[in-house]
Amino acid sequence: MGYGFLLLLILFHPFLPHSSGKPSGVCVSQGGRFAPFKSEGSPPKKGPKDLTLCWVFRKKTCCDIAHTHPALLSVRKLASTGEASQECLHLWELLECSICDPRVGTRPGPPLVCASLCERIFEACSNAYFSMDVKTQLLAPCGVNDFVCGRAAEWASNGTDLCAAAVFE
Q1: Cβ contacts of residue 48 below 8 Å, gap of 6+?
Q2: Beta bridge partners of 129
Q3: pLDDT band for position 62 (50/70/90)?
């Protein structure tokens, strides 16, 4: 391979799909703990009527119940065994639902969220209980079957760390 091929690769790099993590305009499955989008490769559209959470994005989303139901369970665990405040529950729901934002669901990789949101979540949820999920090794609200639970402030030192531990960037 000569320099010509490398030059072509550099010139066409901006046109390669998902090369820079920028939105593609079509649904791109996030991977990791998130279920694949059924609408993979299609633009975000009106969500199904059976969304169990994340209704704010129902007019335009890549999500379906496979994404909103786990988010609902996460918020429920935080409410029932995590001893979270109302503000913590509200902000955690926003975080869990961020994957359903059409601007997030069209980017490859972990969902990108604002650092300021992560800091607000950390402040509101620092006294709520979380655990490290055995299967995924990700931070999640403490549930009745978890053996080791600790306050968010024991698992993370700031909002960025908290969001990263829950697989949000």
Answers
A1: 64, 65
A2: 151
A3: very high
pTM: 0.82
Domain that holds residue 114: 25-165
Which are the contacts of 40, defined by CB distance < 8 A and separation ≥ 6?
A: 26, 27, 28, 29
pLDDT digits (tens, 9 = 90+) for 70-100: 999 999 999 999 999 999 999 999 999 999 9
In a domain, 74, yes or no: yes
Cβ 78 vs Cβ 85: under 8 Å: no
- Residue range 4-21, pLDDT digits in tens: 333 233 333 333 333 345
The verdict on residue 10 lying in a domain is no
Count of the separate structural domains present in the chain: 1
Q: Would you tell me how many other CB atoms lie within 10 Å of the CB of residue 102?
A: 19
Number of CB atoms found within 10 A of residue 122's CB: 21
Q: What is the 3-state secondary structure (H, E, C) of 32-83?
A: CCCCCCCCCCCCCECCCCCCCCCHHHCCCECCCHHHHHHHHHHHHHHHHCCC
